[in-house]
Specification:
Structural class: alpha/beta
Number of helices: 11
Strand order of the largest sheet: 8-7-9-10-11
Shape: elongated
Order of helices and strands: HHEEHEHEHEEEHEHHEHEHEH
Distance between the termini: 21 Å
Radius of gyration: 20 Å
């Protein structure tokens, strides 16, 4: 149906194409499906629909939650989905797109435009090993209607590669920097551009990296201003926050 609209629901009830009980379900703040209460009005409150976290959920639970969301929203995103689980979910819900690197499932209503805002978000990752977290951030931003430019393998070990993309980074509404090891990419970018930066430390690195703790602390202690730091490997959080900045800055909806 898309995002719940009171006038549309009442019109359909009057026309007889929608039953009263179904209308009550559509207009409720959530749908109780037993093991989960699916929040159908989150987009009305926050600007973005509810997102499904896939780890720990069974295939049957994922299918029921996704189908509930599809009946009530125009965009459905599920994160942290293994390839095996994705294949089983897609066997029952075939119109989903799976991104193997990001480990995401995504669906958009056929009438919903892919892009909702002008401008774009820049997503940078230091090395190819950081790419899954960067892709999770990029796919999240795209799922919420933002355009994304990806700039991968631009870490400080070969900093000339970063400068090759500098103009595109400067022209983005917001930049997401994803880095493991010592996480230096964020500090470097912060000293070069005037736009907000959303930093994501990754767990990539050798022993003294402490599964991403060293990158996290480097980003938190960066002397470059204008940086917000996400939790370790939290590409989704970065994509969400960056799109929130982008949405409020680029609030002109595309025709």
């Amino acid at each position: 149906m898309g995002t719940t609209n009171l006038d549309d629901v009442l019109k359909r009830v009057k026309e007889g194409s929608l039953g009263v009980d179904e209308a009550k379900t559509l207009l409720s703040s959530f749908e109780d499906i037993g093991f989960a209460k699916v929040d159908h009005q989150r987009e009305d409150r926050t600007g973005f629909p509810e997102v499904v976290y896939g780890e720990g959920k069974t295939v049957a639970q994922m299918i029921d939650i996704i189908q509930s969301l599809k009946r009530n929203t125009n965009r459905v995103l599920a994160t942290r989905i293994s390839e095996e689980k994705a294949a089983k979910v897609m066997a029952s819900v075939p119109d989903l797109d799976y991104n193997e690197s990001a480990r995401t499932l995504f669906w958009r209503h056929p009438d919903e435009p892919a892009l909702l805002y002008n401008g774009y978000i820049a997503v940078l990752c230091a090395g190819t090993s950081d790419l899954p977290v960067a892709e999770e951030a990029a796919v999240t931003a795209e799922a919420f209607g933002a355009s994304v430019k990806r700039m991968y393998d631009v870490g400080v070990a070969g900093i000339h590669r970063l400068f090759h993309h500098l103009e595109d980074i400067e022209n983005a509404t917001v930049a997401i920097t994803v880095a493991g090891m010592e996480g230096a990419l964020t500090s470097v970018v912060g000293g070069l551009i005037s736009n907000p930066i959303v930093a994501v430390p990754t767990s990539i690195g050798y022993g003294a990296n402490f599964q991403g703790l060293s990158s996290l602390l480097s980003m938190l202690n960066a002397c470059s201003p204008g940086i917000s730091v996400m939790n370790i490997d939290n590409g989704f959080g970065a994509g969400y926050y960056a799109t929130l900045i982008h949405k409020n800055h680029r609030n002109t909806i595309l025709d």
